[in-house]
Amino acid sequence: MSVANLDARTPPPRKPRRMRASVLRATIISLILIPISLLWIYPLLWMVSASLKTNAEIFGGLGLIPAAPQWQNYVRAWEQARIGQYFLNTVIITVSSVLLVIVITSMIGYVLGRYSFPGKRAIIGLFVATVFLPTGYTIIPVFEMVNRLGLADTLWGVILAQSGGAHVLYILLFAGYFSQLPRELEEAAIMDGASFVRVFVQVMLPLAMPIVATVIILHFINSWNDFLLPLVLTLSRPDLRTLAVGMYAFRGEFYVDWSGMAAAASISLLPVILVFLFMQRYFVEGIAGAVKQ
């Protein structure tokens, strides 16, 4: 009997029992998680669907497919409700605030993560204590400081108010990541004549790009959706409102334009989704690297 015939009659190797159990377990978990995921994202899908319906159709049921898509809801939201102007204000405030927060928190996190000095534990304890202060308790002193600086009713006032908080989580993420980097990197840069600022900007900060991306995502979402600070700081200047505050334009004394509000909310949510999808890989790497012991 030839070798070819022997190979043809040889049955294929069976999968190990452990591998079959692993595949079965993964299948069962997927079957459980898929319906949960669909249920989780249903409100988002319903909001997008509502943005293409009339007010009467919105209250006619919970279906996701509109009878006739009302694309004019987006036109009305962008032009008549001035969502276009609010969108531009939100972009300016959010981008500027993110840049300021990255600079501030990275420098503080670098010092806390790389250097030991008297009172370091006390400073970290004070930072952590600020987490328990509700935002409503600090709105009055923040407003007073912005007013004394002469920045009330300006975009710069809102930017400084949003970027001037403690941002404890961001600082601790930077501190945890910087504390794990090898000391030899700094020593080699110093031997080459680099100053403290140059070591931080050209050596250490580029290595912390996963944390930078994480802070960008977290603060972008926080600043983009912030409601209280922009509301208080732009009360007398409706033209400086952000998207979150501008939603009030769809609410009248006796009538609420729900379809226009849903269209504006869909427009507002799109940049957040795009930023997260673009930087989600760095987000996971940053969280994992900051908490790694």
Question: What would you say about this model in short?
Answer:
The protein is an all-alpha fold and 293 residues long.
List keywords for this structure.
about 290 residues, mainly alpha, MetI-like fold, 2 domains, 15 helices
Q: How many domains?
A: 2
Class based on secondary structure composition and strand pairing:
mainly alpha
What percentage of amino acids are in beta strands? under 5%
Number of helices: 15
Span of the ends, CA to CA: 62 Å
Give the biggest beta sheet.
Answer: none
SSE series: HHHHHHHHHHHHHHH
Task: Tell me the helix content.
Answer: over 70%
CATH architecture of the largest domain: Orthogonal Bundle
* CATH fold node name of the largest domain: MetI-like fold
Rg from C-alpha positions?
26 Å
Number of strands: 0
Unreliable stretches, pLDDT < 50, 5 or more residues?
none
